[in-house]
Specification:
The chain contains six helices and ten strands, in the order βαββαβααββαβαβββ. It is of the alpha/beta class. It has a single domain, classed as DHBP synthase (Alpha-Beta Complex).
Length: 207
């Protein structure tokens, strides 16, 4: 099922099918500030299993899964944030960054990587903000590009109609915000007050 929305001014009623699917353990595809992404509710173990399969990230994989949170307070609930880390993320967020933090006990075990870390995002994007608000919990997220992409270029798969044909069996709802070029987030690992750049992307590196 595809629902069409205005990414600048999304209407809550149009996102209802996506929210219903998330609450029913489903996976959706939706637009973000860095391209289209898979999403499921943080509380859905079934959704996490499906998303892991779609992304090719097993539970022992070193790459952590990522969640969308509402704000810095919610980020501190799920990740250990020291004073120096807080100053950095306060300066950069909301924006096109993924922050890898040491996970707190609030994070479901199925979310963590083997180092007990978790990625978190606070995108500057109206659809992302509205989905998290309407769902009333963090949204597990992962770019549609597989973690270990070989051969076919997934970067060309940018139109929601293409996603519907490819992922019809796995995804309940596709939120169509128009064709988009993937532009990956900058990934920063912020553990023990040490800043490590894991990937340079759309967000400028902190000075």
């Amino acid at each position: 099922m595809i629902v069409h929305i205005d990414v600048e001014r999304p209407a809550p009623r149009l996102l209802k099918p996506a929210i219903d699917a998330l609450r029913d353990d489903g996976v959706i595809i939706y637009p973000t500030d860095t391209g289209y992404a898979f999403g499921c509710a943080l509380s859905s173990s079934k959704g996490i299993t499906i998303l892991r399969r779609l992304k090719g990230i097993h539970e022992k994989h070193p790459k952590p899964l990522t969640m969308l949170v509402r704000d810095l307070a919610e980020m501190a609930r799920y990740g250990h944030v020291g004073n120096q880390v807080f100053r950095i993320i306060r300066r950069l967020l909301p924006g096109p960054y993924t922050m890898v933090l040491r996970a707190t006990s609030e994070v479901p075990r199925a979310m963590k990587n083997r180092n007990h870390e978790v990625g978190m995002r606070v995108p500057d994007h109206a659809v992302c903000r509205m989905l998290v608000e309407l769902l009333d919990e963090p949204l597990l997220t992962g770019s549609v590009t597989p973690a270990e992409s070989k051969g076919e270029s997934e970067a060309q798969l940018e139109d929601p109609d293409d996603y519907e044909r490819r992922y019809a069996r796995d995804v309940a709802v596709i939120v169509d915000g128009g064709a988009m070029h993937p532009d990956p987030s900058t990934v920063l690992r912020l553990v023990d007050d040490v800043v490590e750049v894991l990937r340079e992307g759309k967000g400028a590196l902190p000075q």
